[in-house]
Amino acid sequence: AQSVTQPDIHITVSEGASLELRCNYSYGATPYLFWYVQSPGQGLQLLLKYFSGDTLVQGIKGFEAEFKRSQSSFNLRKPSVHWSDAAEYFCAVGDNAGNMLTFGGGTRLMVKP
Amino acid sequence: EAQVTQNPRYLITVTGKKLTVTCSQNMNHEYMSWYRQDPGLGLRQIYYSMNVEVTDKGDVPEGYKVSRKEKRNFPLILESPSPNQTSLYFCASSFSLTSGSKQFFGPGTRLTVL
To answer: Chain B residues with CB inside 8 Å of A43's CB?
Structure first.
């Protein structure tokens, strides 16, 4: 069965600082990987996804993520965080059959002025 | 406007009283899914549907039922709700998880079972 671990439950960064959110997955084949963001009281918005090809994926709002097969990781990065990035971030892995989507527990990001 | 709608948005009910949460999408998506979100656990998939009359269990299907009689609708049914089903529920749809298509999420339904 596939699984996703987001080791950091909470992260606080200063506005303008760089950000990296960690995501480790477990899946027997090449996974489909996703990052979603959830602002307070809102639904989920897709930031970016990896299906195949280039392992560095660009997303919306200046986010990027890098797929590292050897480390089973798909970490999310942003070079300069804005106060509006404060939200909860979820990493997810999808199976090859396109049936199941498994989410990590989420990382709540707080941004200090 | 492309969207996934859920109703009701908020519901407080009592143990054992059957309820249905509706989900509808206007994008002609084949794939629809239900998730529940609980603090620290992220989103867990309850049921999904690959197309009309095709449904299957996700990670946490116990206590839930679904149906997919029409492509646009995917209701979630709790035959006998219990307090451990108090949660935030999201419906989502897409053309497929393996295509490049985006998965759209509904606004969520906050359910409290007393």
So the answer is: 90, 105-108
